[in-house]
Request: fold
Amino acid sequence: MIYTYKNIIKGLVLILFLPLNSYILCEQQDQKDQKDQKDQKDQKISTTSTETDSVKTDTNKPISNNTLSKETKTQVSSQNTSKSLITRSEQNKIFLETLKQVHKLDDEAMKKITSIFNSSPVISQGNPKITKHPLTTEECLVNLKKNKIDYSNPKFEAICHHKYMAPLYDPETQTIDQATTCIDQFEFPSIPCEYPLVWTRASEAVGICEAMGKRLCDAHEWEGACEGRLLPPDYVFSPNPSSSNIQKLRLDHNRKVAKTWGYKSSSYKNGICGGASFKSKNCNGGDWTQCGSNTYPVGSFPECHSSLMVYDIHGNAAEHMNLPLSSEQMASHSSHQYGYTEMKGSWFIFDTYKAHPDYCRWRAPFWHGTRTLDPKSHHNYHLGFRCCLDLDKKGLEKNKDLK
Reply:
């Protein structure tokens, strides 16, 4: 009987305390599961951090930053920092360092260019607080590497004595070695996978180009670079040149020229150049605080080039050029007087909003027109430029120092 009572008491104890023991065991298991989840999360964060420091050609083979050139590291650093940039000055500091390294600019050139930047409240790659680029610098570099695209061109460099410039000539009547002018292959800064410089006045573009031993292009040079053949200038000069002549001159010019696009087409084609970005929601036409420069890195569209290998001539950023109304205003004739402002190309939403024609030899209305050297010449969030270079012996000797 005593044994039976003992068994009953033992059974009651098990019934009463077994649920409590199960609860304790469950709590311990939950704590273990939470710890395992935390360890996995920490490991994932660590892995993500490591991957951020590398450029990938595909999802399986990351390329360490240590394999990149010094120039490319600066570009990737610029892109990785852009999300945390607070001020335009921080953005510009990285931009100028990249410009110096890639184009091997000396201290004198950098001093002049930096002075232009410091004198402007807006010159930049776009207001960093509101600009949203559709493609990052890193993604651009990855895409080029994945597709085995290298924009370096030793033959062009031997002729132009600068990186990322293309000789301008007429292939029907000349050989490439007979070129007397070169043009930036990309929108300034003419560095593959960098965003174009915008919010730049024409007068500032002149100063930057000249600081680098180059100059702003004349309109006919840009048109030739786009169409794939540099033709003789077709400007009609009058004894008393003035801006009032521009409208008639441009209409006469546009009636005569063929309508062709740089990628050898008789019509504009969506998707070939950088025209599928978007406009900031509250952009009212040109406000620094409301209009993001939502551009692509230059060189992101390898098919967007002319037969002379000049890229991004449609879409992305429009470009300042010089329109001479007299021979004395032709930059291509070594003039430092310059003429009047001329806008070339189109912009980063052109695939969906074709605000104007943009065929190669089209000359625009005198929008916001001034003299090219006017310190108040126009600037906005989608307007940049590119430079040209004369290849005379004097120019070559001068530019060798900048190589």
Remarks:
- Confidence is low (pLDDT under 50) at residues 1-70, 76-83, 393-403.
- The chain has one domain: 70-400.
- Residues 70-400 form one domain.
- Residues 2-52 form the longest helix (51 residues).
